[in-house]
């Protein structure tokens, strides 16, 4: 037995292990610093409200019939500003946008369930705190699950639904499998502070193209979307957990679709590479009286490509006729009842 050789081999493995640990620590420090830098570059633009010990960031602008805009995964509530949907509504409606828990500047406490029903319950309480009564609820992508959960759980408090590029029926999702490790306690923490942000930076250009395909990424999205905010460890955890809960949330909700009796408009792009527009067609068949619009040439980010069509559909449910109205000089004026605060 070569004891000296065995000791040398052990020392070599120890050196490799130490090097790996040091690299992971360095990545964690860099990613933590990058997250703080991203938050300084993208400070909160709205106000904060605490509900069930969860601090939520939101904006509340305009006056008129209330509209709640619920964003999807990877993005934040700012997505409705970047798309232009919010500014088309603020001139005639009261528009409320939350960063969903864990996204943007909203908190997502650990060790709590965050499936669609749980997020809907939290937003319902927040709306009550803000004095919002029976809004039209607009959801995009993962946000459609939250919108549907609000209508199913609180039908008397929901005036109508506009659902954009949604995933409505449980199917096998490779992306849900791929993000599952990031949702696992401890393992997910290690990944999101070390290699996940690096992987995200490398793949984000392709991710954006897939999100918009077959349409090109809009100039405004390229200019205003913050990759750095999306790849903070805290938001990576929210993205992974929501991706993991996506199939189970759809499975939990689908049994209630036929019981919905409120106005529902479903919009999808015929070229969506993330969720097939067949989901929209199935949902329209399941919800009696619902309306379906398939937008030719649009992908998953249909509200960025067909902004006026989306805004028009929302206004139709509020009972406001005519074309979408802009705020003063196209700007989003704050609601004087709820002024922004840091």
Automatic annotation (TrEMBL):
Q: Where is the AB hydrolase-1 domain?
A: 65-305
Signal peptide extent: none
Cellular compartments per GO CC:
membrane
Name the UniProt key words of this record, in alphabetical order. Answer: Hydrolase, Membrane, Transmembrane, Transmembrane helix
Q: Name one GO molecular function term.
A: hydrolase activity
Oxidoreductase listed as a keyword? no
Q: Mind telling me which residue stretches traverse the membrane in this protein?
A: 12-35
Coiled-coil blocks: none
Which InterPro entries does this chain map to? AB_hydrolase_1, AB_hydrolase_fold, AB_hydrolase_sf, Epox_hydrolase-like
Protein name, as recorded: Alpha/beta hydrolase
List the taxonomic lineage. Answer: Bacteria, Pseudomonadati, Pseudomonadota, Alphaproteobacteria, Sphingomonadales
């Amino acid at each position: 037995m070569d004891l000296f050789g065995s000791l040398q081999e052990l020392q070599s493995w120890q050196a490799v292990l130490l090097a790996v640990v040091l690299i992971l620590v360095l990545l964690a420090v860099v990613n933590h610093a990058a997250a703080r830098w991203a938050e300084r570059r993208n400070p909160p633009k709205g106000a904060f409200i605490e509900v069930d010990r969860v601090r939520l960031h939101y904006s509340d602008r305009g006056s008129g019939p209330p509209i709640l805009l619920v964003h999807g995964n990877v993005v934040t509530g700012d997505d409705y500003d970047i798309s232009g949907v919010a500014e088309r509504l603020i001139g005639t409606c009261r528009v409320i946008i939350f960063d969903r828990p864990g996204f943007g500047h909203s908190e997502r406490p650990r060790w709590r369930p965050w499936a669609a029903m749980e997020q809907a319950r939290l937003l319902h309480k927040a709306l009550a705190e803000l004095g919002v009564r029976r809004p039209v609820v607009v959801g995009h992508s993962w946000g459609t699950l939250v919108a549907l959960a609000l209508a199913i759980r609180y039908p008397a408090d929901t005036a109508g639904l506009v659902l954009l590029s949604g995933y409505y029926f449980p199917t096998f999702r490779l992306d849900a499998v791929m993000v599952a490790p990031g949702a696992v306690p401890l393992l997910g923490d290690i990944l999101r502070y070390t290699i996940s942000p690096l992987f995200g930076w490398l793949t984000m250009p392709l991710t954006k193209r897939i999100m918009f395909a077959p349409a090109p990424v809009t100039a405004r999205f390229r200019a205003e979307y913050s990759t750095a905010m999306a790849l903070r460890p805290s938001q990576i955890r929210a993205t992974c957990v929501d991706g993991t809960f996506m199939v189970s949330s759809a499975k939990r909700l689908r049994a209630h679709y036929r019981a919905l009796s409120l106005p529902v408009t479903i919009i999808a792009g015929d070229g969506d590479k993330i969720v097939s527009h067949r989901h929209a067609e199935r949902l329209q068949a399941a919800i009696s009286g619902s309306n379906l619009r398939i937008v030719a040439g649009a992908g998953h980010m249909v509200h960025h490509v067909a902004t006026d069509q989306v805004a028009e559909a929302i206004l139709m449910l509020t009972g406001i006729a005519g074309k979408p109205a802009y705020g003063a000089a196209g700007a989003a004026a704050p609601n004087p009842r709820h002024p922004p605060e840091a």
